[in-house]
Amino acid sequence: MTQQDTEAARKTRTGHWSTYPTTKARRIDGFYKTHPTDAHARNVMVSALSSVLEKGRVLDVGCGTGDVTVAIHDAGYEVTGLDISKGMLEVFKENSGHRDIPLIIGDIFEMKAPEQKFDAITCRYVFSHYQDFGLLLGKISEYVRPGGYMIFDTFASEAIENASTLLDKPADEISSKVFGTLANFSDSELEKFCSDNNLSLVARHASAFFHRNPLFAAHASDIATYDSELAAHTDHPEVRKFMSWFQAAVASKLPSNLSGAVINIVQKLPA
């Protein structure tokens, strides 16, 4: 894909997001609030932030309805939310209640980075929409100070390779079934980009064991079947309780090739 094609695809994608109605934003928000995998992903994101930054200014890129942003605020950080969707930010305001959280509506690719950089950038559920992850990572790195951090989730291609070996199935077949058109990246790809762009990959670890895990989902006829079956059982309180415990106590310590989704911590090195 040429640079022109990549830019056209990006604009199409962001144009779609910018028109999200408030009704759709509320449906997405409801999923965030009820699905145990999402609750764990939020907690892991905040935990990853606190592991490298005790306090400071944080920009949550693609903040959506505020699930992660509010949690970061409540953990004691000075956080700002950025999203391209007016509908998402309307629901964000409902969720934030009395909290004083600044919001920015706009496309980060069309904006100029402020002179006062942030101490950290967080970004959840955005990178999986960019086949060229460096396009987004390079852009958000403009918003963070030297020595600051970028914390974001991605799907793990090493999990695809691991499942391919264990299940004796072609990696492409598993990837198309489990992730569809969603992007996934490996340790080596991120490390190569970081070394070429004055960044350092600090950590990369499992964040969501059950959500689109190739070892499980590859056995379903399609990802929709797997997702619907998972959702049907997570309605049970005891199942949800077990999943939450497993995600926190076990999955967060697993290597990235055993989980569909991972949390990445990248540091911007001094010039």
TrEMBL record:
GO molecular function, one term: S-adenosylmethionine-dependent methyltransferase activity
Entry-linked InterPro entries: Methyltransf_11, SAM-dependent_MTases_sf
CDD domains in UniProt: AdoMet_MTases (cd02440)
Pfam families: Methyltransf_11
UniProt domain Methyltransferase type: residue ranges: 59-152
Signal peptide: none
Cross-referenced PANTHER family: TRANS-ACONITATE 2-METHYLTRANSFERASE-RELATED
Protein name per UniProt: Methyltransferase type 11 domain-containing protein
Organism in which the protein naturally occurs: Comamonas testosteroni TK102
